[in-house]
Amino acid sequence: MKSFTHKSMLFFLALALVHSYALGQIQVETPIHAIELCDSEVKTFTIIVKNPQPHPVSVLLAPVDVANSHVGVSIIPANDTLMPNESKEFYGVVSAKSREYGEYAFFVEAQTQDVRIKKPVSVVLKNCHELRINADAVKKEVCLFTSDEFEIIVENTGAYDEILNVSVSGSGAEFAKLSKEGTNALVIPRKESRKLFLFFYPSEKTGNFSLVVDIANTYVQQSIKLETGVSRCSDFKAYAPPLVSVCENQNLTFNLLVQNTGITSDNYALRVVAPPGVHVENNTLTLASGSAQNVSVTVPPACDEQGTYDATFFVSAKNAVGEQNTTTRIVVDDCYSFNALPIPVHNATACAPVWFNMSLTNTGAFEQSYEFSSDAKELNISKPAVFLQPNQTTVIPLVYASCALGTKDMTIFVRELSVCNTTAALHATVGVVSAQEAIKARITPAQENYILSVLEHYNVPLILENQGFQSASYTLEFSGSAGSWVHARTPGTIMLAPGELLKANLIVIPPQNATENAYELVVNAFSEDTLVGSAKILFSRQNTAPQIIGYVTSNGNGAERGYLILIILLVFGVLAYHKRGRLVRFLRRDDANTEYEKTTIER
Q1: Residue 233: pLDDT band by 50, 70, 90 thresholds?
Q2: Cis status, amide bond into 301, omega within 30 of 0
Q3: Based on CB atoms within 10 Å of each CB, which residue in 42, 100, 189, 209 is the most buried?
Q4: 566 falls within a domain
Q5: SS3 414
Q6: Do 321 and 351 lie in a common domain?
Q7: Same domain for 245 and 224?
Q8: Same domain, yes or no, for 146 and 220?
Q9: Which residues, other chains included, contact 426 with Cβ-Cβ below 8 Å and sequence gap of 6+?
Q10: 531 and 444 part of one domain
Q11: CB of 111 within 8 A of CB of 25?
C-alpha cells in the first residue's frame, strides 16, 4: 500500500509538471527572409505570437544577441498578455547605424513565466546609392574647328537623392566643356535622370582623343569613356562658344570666329538660325590665307524668357564646297527674382487700427528697387518703396482700419522696378468685429443645478474664459432671485489674455427664509461696463420626504447623489428604531482623498 501511494504521487507530480510546461508553451513567428536596409534607413518587421493554451499568458519580447553596433533593434510593445488561442502582432524596429555593409543576425526572445523561445532575424546592410550612365554615342568623328557634342544621360537608380560632382579628363579634355561641371554641380532625385552635354571643339590638333566623364560623391562613383577622331575637313573653320549665359533683361554679346585655313584668300557668307532678336554684326567677310576674324553676336534683353536656347551659325566660302556650322547654347537666367511671404489672416476691432507686416526678400543677383500698392483704401502701407541688396530681407509695416464689420479681402501688389517690372500679388484678409466681440467671454459653471438643503453654504466653482482676440479686464456681477446669496468670490477683477481662462470659486449662502422651490443665480461678466458673457445656475428644492443631506462639494457627481440617497435611507431606519435622533456626522472623500465634514443635525 505504501509503495502504491508513493508511485501514485510521483505519477501525479510528473503529470503536473508536464501540464505546467505545456501551459507555458507559445508559438513565435519572425520574418523568414532577410531584412534589407540602406544607409541610415529604419524598417519595421512583424513578430507573431500565438497562445494555443486555454488560459491567458503574459509574454515579454526583447532583442538579444545583437552582434554589433551596426544594427539597432527595438520591439513595440515589449510585453503583452495573450488570451487563450489569441494571436498578436508585435512590431520590431531595425535601423542601420553605419555603412559597414554585410549580413548580420540577432534573435527575438519571447519569454513567459515558464519558457523562453529565441527566433533568429537576419538583416542585410547594403549600399543603396546607385548610378547608371549612358551616352548617345561613345565615339564620334569631328572636323577640326567644328563643334560637336555628346549627350550623356545620368540615371539615379538608387534609393536616395544624390548631389554629384562632375568632371572631365583625358587627352581631349582641353577641347571639351561640360554643360554642368564642378563640385555639387548635378542634383538628381532618386529614380530620376538628368542630361549632360559634353561640347567638344578641337581647335588645334587632328588625331584620336579620349574623354573620361567622372560623376561621383562620397557614396557612389561612375564614369564613361568617350572617343573622338579629329580630321581636317575643309579650308576654313568657324567657332562660337558652346555655352553662354545671361540674365533676363540684359544684353549679351559674344564672338563668332571665322578662320581661313586655306592657301588663298576667300570670301565668306554668314547666316544664323536662332531665336528672334539674335543679331550678327557682319553677314559677309573677306579673309586672307591663315587669317581669322571675330564677328560680334548680340542677344537682346528679354523678360520672362528664362530657359535654354540654341543659336546655330552657318558659314560658307565662295571657293569651297559646302558650309560649316557651329552652335552656341544660350542660357537665360532669372536674376531679378524676389520672394514675398504670404500674409496670415488678422482680426481687428471696428474703427480701431490693426498692425501687421509683409516680408520681402531680394532673391536675385542684383540690387533692386520695389514699390507697393493695394486695392484697399483702408490699408496704409508705411513704406511705398524700398531698395534691397541681393539676399536682403525687409519688413514692411501695414496698418488697416475700418468701421465696417465683416471680412475684408484685399490684394497687395509688389513690383520690381527694372526693365521687366515683374509684379507679384499678395492676398490679405482682415476680419473686423465689434468691440464687444473682440473681448467676449464665456462663463462655464462646474454644474448648473444645485439641490437646496439645510446647508449653510455652497462652494460654486466656475470657469471664465476670454474668447476674444484682445486682452481684457473682467469683473463678475450677480443677479436673479439668488443674486444676493453670493457672499464671496475669488478673485475680484480678472485680467485675461486671448484664449486664457481662470477658475473662480463662489461662496453661496441661502437665507433661512428661502422657502421657494427654485431660485436662479445669474452670473454676468463685464469689461469696462460692457456685458460680454453670462451664465445661469439654478437652486431648486426636491419634493421628497424630510431628509438629512450631507455637504456636497461643487464638483459633486452622480455617485455622490447616490451616497445622499443611501444616507437618507439609513436616517429613516435610525428614526424608526429610536424615538429620538442623535447627532450624525457624514464623511466623504473626493478624488484627491481630501476629507470634508458635513452638516450636523440633532433632533
Answers
A1: low
A2: no
A3: 209
A4: no
A5: strand
A6: no
A7: no
A8: yes
A9: 340, 342, 343, 358, 411, 412, 413, 414
A10: yes
A11: no
- Prior bond to 498 cis, omega within 30? no
Domain at 41, CATH number? 2.60.40.2310
Q: Is 289 helix (H, G, I), strand (E, B) or coil?
A: coil
What is the C-alpha to C-alpha distance for residues 462 and 448, in angstroms, rounded to an integer?
Answer: 10
Which residues form the domain of 55?
25-125
Which residues have C-beta within 8 Å of that of residue 5, sequence separation ≥ 6?
none
Residues 305-320 have pLDDT tens digits of 778 889 899 998 876 6
Please report, for residues 8, 15, 16, the alpha-carbon distance to residue 2 in angstroms, rounded to integers and kept in the order given.
10, 20, 21
Indicate the pTM of the whole model: 0.36
**CA-based R_g, the chain, Å:** 44
Q: What is the dihedral of CA 491, 494, 500, 504, to 10 degrees?
A: 20
Structure confidence at residue 419 as a pLDDT band (50, 70, 90): low
pLDDT in tens, 37-60: 887 788 899 999 999 989 999 999
CB-CB contact of 31 with 92 (8 Å): no
Alpha-carbon torsion (338, 341, 342, 348), positive or negative:
negative
Whether residues 115 and 206 fall in one domain: no
Q: Which of 231, 239, 232, 234 is nearest to 292 (CA)?
A: 239
For residue 427, give Cα distances in angstroms to 60, 275, 372, 423: 57, 37, 13, 13
Q: Is the pLDDT of residue 106 over 60?
A: yes
Q: Can you read off the three cell numbers belonging to residue 3? A: 509503495
Q: List, for residues 235-273, the tens digit of each pLDDT value.
A: 788 888 888 887 777 778 889 999 888 767 888 899 898
Q: C-alpha cell of 284?
A: 559677309
**Shared-domain flag, residues 191 and 159:** yes
Q: Give the residue from 231, 248, 281 where a domain finishes.
A: 231
For residue 102, the SS3 value is strand
Tell me the sheet residues that pair with 75: 92
**pLDDT value at residue 503:** 87
Q: What's the length of the chain?
A: 603
524-562 residue pLDDT tens: 989 888 888 999 999 887 654 443 333 333 333 444 444
Strand partners, 215: 166, 222
How many structural domains does the chain have? 5
Cell (9 digits) for 415: 513690383
- CA end-to-end span of the chain, whole Å? 76
Is 411 among the domain residues? yes
Three cell numbers, residue 352: 480701431
Question: Do 244 and 329 reside in the same domain of the chain?
Answer: yes
Report yes or no: 120 and 105 within 8 Å, Cβ to Cβ: yes
Least confident piece of the model among 169-178, 360-369, 579-588:
579-588
Domain presence at residue 119 = yes
